[in-house]
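User: What would this chain look like folded?
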Amino acid sequence: MPETTLTLPNALAALRAAGEETRLRVLSLLAQGELSVSDLTDILGQSQPRISRHLKLLVEAGLVERHREGAWAFFRLAERDPAAALLRPMLDALDAEDATAAGDRERLAAVRAARAEAAQSYFARLAPDWDRLRSLHAPADEVEAAIEAALGDRPIRALVDLGTGTGRMLSLLAGRAERVVGLDASHAMLSVARANLEKAGVRGVELRQGDIHAPPVEANSFDLVIIHQVLHYLDDPARALREAARLVAPGGRLLVVDFAPHELEFLRTAQAHRRLGFSREQVESWLAEAGLDCTLHRDLAPPRAGEDALTVSLWLGRDRRRINDMPFRTQDREVA
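Assistant: Here's the prediction, encoded as structure tokens.
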């Protein structure tokens, strides 16, 4: 349980850390979203060692969080440290017309534009294969509508999207959650997700690089875990589901979206699919083994019938543990 109050020494340390021009500029920039050392170097026009020293002080004071993506390090305002909460009103009160702050924002926009261009270039190389795949199954808006219907209007305190890819699930659901985390093994895909989220105006998302079989996030902490079109890439999908279930908070849910069984062998070579879909019974049994009850299953038919069509399937698993020893309502037990 994170602390909610500050000792006087910790408050003084936080204020001292923020009470320097460059560090205050860094905090103001990080309030707009996470950035790398390279990003901050470009925006602030200072050397990498100098920026790194400032960031080290801010991390030690509890104002900034650091996480790695391979050789890269990204920084964001701390979300759960009370020291960061002390500074947020001050950052919100900064004059938007201040010349220094305005210049920083202008250079931040240029950094984001360059990032978006690089992400678009990467994705353009993949687009032909992705377009072919999308043409074989239900349109994305239909799938997303089914996802939102499956989740209903139940509040989401914290969600994590495992194998977030382009970040689409984060964009779709971030507005409903207090805390949002996206995990992917690929730094390149996280760059795409980061650019897409910035373009969509989605702020406050934690993007992390990591293995879905050993996710670097807290166990029993998320009331919604998502695995969207990921299992068919994995050698051991059952293990991935077990690890995902470990992250689910008591009474929380795990949403799985993937393909029903099919015989499109070209997807193994063209798109590195390891599995050609999953039966309803197979995923439900994996959920049960992981300690989850399958409360909903739904199939979305392809736009056309035929041997080259793909059915999208949704499964919603619910953690068997109770919240505050209270049973779930009957409407949470519906099975499609």
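Residues 8-109 form a domain with the Arc Repressor Mutant, subunit A fold (CATH 1.10.10.10). If you want, I can go into more detail on any region.
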